[in-house]
């Protein structure tokens, strides 16, 4: 209502302002390093492979439908 003037009751901390601008522009400052390549490989390739392998090995091994007292969920 009073225009574009910002009225701050407390002074802004320059370190927090710089951190905010760095986080909002993170894609501009990103660089491929051995560490970032390793982390990307782990999350994009290795983790899905491990989860897929575990799912493939346990497919049909457990039956989680309604069981009666004393019945096992283990099928083999």
From TrEMBL:
Superkingdom to which the source organism belongs: Eukaryota
UniProt KW Transmembrane keyword: yes
Keyword field: Membrane, Transmembrane, Transmembrane helix
Transmembrane in keyword set: yes
Transmembrane segments: 36-56
Protein name, entry field: NADH dehydrogenase [ubiquinone] 1 beta subcomplex subunit 4
Organism: Colletotrichum chlorophyti
Lineage: Eukaryota, Fungi, Dikarya, Ascomycota, Pezizomycotina
């Amino acid at each position: 209502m009073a225009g574009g003037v910002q009225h701050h009751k407390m002074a802004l901390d320059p370190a927090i302002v710089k951190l905010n601008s760095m986080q909002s522009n993170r894609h501009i400052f990103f660089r491929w390093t051995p560490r970032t390549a390793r982390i990307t490989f782990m999350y994009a390739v290795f983790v899905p492979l491990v989860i897929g392998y575990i799912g493939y090995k346990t497919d049909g091994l457990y039956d989680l439908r309604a069981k009666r007292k004393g019945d096992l969920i283990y099928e083999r």
